[in-house]
Amino acid sequence: MCSSDLRVMRDAIGRVAELVPSDPAIVGRLSYLNLLLNEKPAAQRDILERLGTAHPTNSTIRLTRALAELKTGNAAAALNLLEQEPIDWDKAEPRWLAVYVSVLVANEQREAARQMARKLRPEALKVPERDLVRGFL
Questions:
Q1: Confidence band (pLDDT; 50, 70, 90) for 129?
Q2: Least confident interval from 1-10, 28-37, 81-90, 103-112
Q3: Dihedral sign (CA 84, 89, 92, 94)
Q4: Contact, 59 vs 85, CB < 8 A?
Q5: How big is the chain by its Cα radius of gyration, in Å?
Q6: Phi first, then psi: what are they for 27, rounded to 5°?
Q7: Suppose 10 and one of 33, 85, 95, 112 were both cysteines; which one would form an S-S bond, judging by CB atoms 3.0 to 4.6 Å apart?
Q8: With the C-alpha atoms ordered 107, 114, 40, 58, is the resulting torsion angle positive or negative?
């Protein structure tokens, strides 16, 4: 999926978010797509921080927050978010594995990143998700 397709998807989800602004799944998905498009990462981090406070057990929000922290230069905070509670990476969606690999790389845990990247199926990732793990696929 190229960035123009992502923009179309993001715009559609943005319209849905206007209708249901309190739905954490919709707002989180919108922030995720904005992060993939590098659209206002600091603003997305703030949105996700509020969502995370309101929904502390929502792992999707936590994983998206980790991406936001990474995109705003806070690699250690991203890793901390991913290590707060156990995640079964063998069952995780490919996009979350890509986020984890990129967070590991940013925290200079290259061997762990390499091992995790072996679980990735590149064809299951959007282009910006593949960009997160370039060099490890």
A1: very high
A2: 1-10
A3: positive
A4: yes
A5: 14
A6: -65, -40
A7: 33
A8: negative
